TrEMBL record, chains A, B:
Gene Ontology cellular-component terms listed: cytoplasm; nucleus
Necessary cofactors: heme b
Entry's family note: Belongs to the plant globin family.
Name under which the protein is recorded: Globin domain-containing protein
Places the protein is found: Cytoplasm; Nucleus
Chain ranges of the Globin domain: 13-162
Provenance organism: Musa balbisiana
UniProt cross-references to Pfam families, sorted A to Z: Globin
Length: 168, 168
């Protein structure tokens, strides 16, 4: 899958510095990544409680949200994919997700009823969580680098969702 | 207009203490209320940038968002209405908006394309803004009181939107 419309319409100036900002903060968070990822999604639900209803594994579970293993796993996937997107952007100037993965992800997100507003809240929650996880290294440039990596990943997923939606 | 479904489905225990928490913080913010209200909506757009596109007076304007007089005025209306809702809840156990006002508000919000997710982001931004405006007096009870006042106001508006939408 190629980087999608929203990503491609803007100039991509994602160089070694931008990648380094993401990777440096990622390395600082790595040992607590699972906890931070979980905080990230709890932050999403704090801002938009109804977003929790999009997750079948939360709807169908009696386990408290913050103990749900599938939420932890989903949160870690998003967190690591954004980090990996930074490296892809620096290397190739675009975000690619393996075709099988991207189609599956697009299908799941479409079926769940994910809309643009959700991508926005997730973006805000991601940056806000990282800011609180590594306050000493947080700076506007780091925020911009993570934001850019997220935007390209989100654009790629949204484009795949659009294709899937128009083909069905 | 009567308090609406979402509000009525929960027990309303909004007494003098709850009202006092809202009014006390409101009084502390009063002299800067216009600035705080503006921050509140800038926070909404920080979390959900696309929400800015719902406002015709932002779409059609060349003035920077934070200088837009109509945004300031809208933000102040929401802020004061939530505060007034607290007093109504304590006095009458429900939120009432004058009929002409509520119909007009419902029409504007429906036409703009406001959805439940927007109400959630606005709620989060409201509480977060007040928390930062009066950090010394902020506490879980104050958060709950403002949240409750907001929820009842939002439920009243959403119910009016539902009625308007089903009648057209």
């Amino acid at each position: 899958m190629e980087a999608a419309s929203e990503g491609e319409s803007r100039a991509i100036a994602f160089g070694e510095e931008q990648e380094a900002l993401v990777v440096r903060s990622w390395n600082a968070m790595r040992k607590d990544a699972a906890d931070i990822a979980l905080k990230f999604f709890l932050r999403v639900f704090e801002i938009a409680p109804s977003a929790a209803r999009l997750f079948s594994f939360l709807r169908d579970s009696n386990v408290p949200v913050d103990k749900n293993p599938k939420l932890k796993s989903h949160a870690m996937s998003v967190f690591t994919m954004v980090c990996e997107s930074a490296t892809q952007l620096r290397k190739k100037g675009k975000v690619s997700v393996r075709e099988t993965t991207s189609k599956k992800l697009a299908g799941t997100h479409l079926k769940a009823g994910v809309i643009d507003e959700h991508f926005e809240v997730v973006r805000f929650a991601l940056l806000d969580t990282i800011k609180h996880a590594v306050p000493a290294m947080w700076c506007p440039e780091m925020s911009a680098a993570w934001g850019e990596a997220y935007d390209h990943l989100a654009a790629a997923l949204k484009e795949e969702m659009r294709l899937l939606s128009s083909s069905s």
